[in-house]
Amino acid sequence: MKQWIDILRQSHQISDEELIQLLTCTDADSIDYLHRQAQEVALSHFGYNIYIRGLIEISNCCRNDCYYCGIRKSNTNVDRYRLSREQILECCAQGYKLGFRTFVMQGGEDRVQNADWLIATVKEIRSNYPDCAITLSLGEMPREVYQQLFEVGANRYLLRHETYDEKHYNQLHPKEMSFDHRIVSLRTLKEIGFQTGTGIMVGSPGQTIAHIIKDIRFMEELQPQMIGIGPFIPHKDTPFAQAQAGSVELTLRLISIFRLMFPSTLIPSTTALASLSKDGRERGILAGANVVMPNLSPVDQRKNYSLYNNKAALGAESAEGLKLLSLQLEKIGYHISYDRGDFRLHTTI
Ligand code: 5AD
To answer: Which of 53, 65, 108, 184 could cross-link 293 (Cys pair, CB 3.0–4.6 Å)?
Structure first.
C-alpha cells in the first residue's frame, strides 16, 4: 500500500484497482501514511497557512428539490429568507474588517435574487472591494449569466457535481434535474475562466466505491481548482431523513487522495466534517486540506440555512469565532492566512 501511495505522490496517478484497495483498506498504518504524505504535500505548497473564506448564505429559497438537502423546495418547515443587497454588503464590510479577502455568496437557486439582481450585487461588491476575491455558489445558470457574472468581477464558482454516475445522480435528485446539465455547467464555468470548484458528499445514499472512482476520474479530466467534499448528513425533513451519515474516515481518506492527485488544489476542511466530528476540521487539515470557510451570514438567519441537521454555525465555524479558529489551528501547528489565496499552479514538490 505504501508503495502505491509513494507513486501516487510522485506521479499523481493511481489505477482503479489500487484506488479500491486504498478506499477500502483497514490497515491503520497505511492510512496514517496516506494522511502524512498528503499533509507533507500540502505543507510543501502552502506551508502552515490556512486560507479563510467568508461564507455569506444569501438565500435559502430554492426552486430545486434535491432529496438530500434541508432547504429543498418541498420542505415546508423552513423559514425562508433572502438577504437584501445592503445586508450582503454589510456582511462584506464586517468580514473585510475581520481580515477576510474572499467572500463566498452561497444560496439556493432562487428566482427572486435573479440574474440581474446578482449581477448588480457582484458589481457593487467588486467596486467596493477591488482587492477581494468573489466566489459564487449559486447553482446552475445559463452560460450568458455565468459570463456576465464573471465580467462584472466574480472570480470563482463552486458547483459540486455530487456524483458522476447518472443513475446515482437520479437517485439523489428529482427528474427535473439533469446530470448532463450539471456537468455542462461545470465545463462552461471553466471555459469562461472561473476558478472552478466541484465535489461530492461522501456517503450519500446509494453511493458505492465504484461511484467514487468515477468521481475521481471526472475530476482528473475537469482539473478543478477547488474540491469540496464533506460527509453526507441526513436532514430530518427530507426523504433521506432515515439514511446513515457518511463516514468521517472515508472523507479524510479522500481529502488525502485528492491532495496527492492535485497538489495545488484548494481543498476546504468543510463545515459538514466539523459538524459530524468535534475535531473534524483539524483532522481535515492534517489530512491535506488548506482552506476553511467561516460563516459571515447574519447570526439570526444562520439557523435557517440548514442543509443538514446539527450544522455547525457558531464557535470556530463562525466569523466572530476567528480567535477560536486561530487557537484551534495553532494547536496543530497551523495559522490563518489573510491572503486571498487564489489557485496557483505550483511546480515544486
Ligand atoms: N449533507 C451534507 N452535505 C449536503 N449538501 C447539501 N445537503 C447536504 C447534506 N444533507 C451539500 C451539497 C451541496 C453543498 C452546498 O452542500 O453537496 O452542493
So the answer is: 53
pLDDT digits (tens, 9 = 90+) for 102-125: 999 999 999 899 999 999 999 999
- Domains annotated for the chain, with CATH where assigned, are 33-337 (3.20.20.70)
Grid cell 509513494 in the structure block, residue: 6
The DSSP symbol for 134 reads: E
Per-residue pLDDT, 347? 58
CB-based contact 207:243 (threshold 8 Å): no
Distance CA 56, CA 9 (A): 35
Longest dimension (CA), the chain: 55
Say which amino acid occupies 50: I
**Residue located nearest, by CA, to atom 3 of ligand 1:** 232
Give the span between the Cα atoms of 303 and 300, in whole angstroms.
7
pLDDT value of position 349: 46
Instruction: Give the pTM.
Output: 0.97
Nearest to 311 by CA among 203, 230, 228: 230
Best CA proximity match to 162, nearest among 106, 103, 194, 206: 206
* pLDDT tens profile 63-107: 999 999 999 999 999 999 999 999 999 999 999 999 999 999 999
Residues 6+ apart with CB under 8 A from 313: 271, 295, 302, 303, 305
Cβ–ligand 1 contact at 162 (below 6 Å):
yes
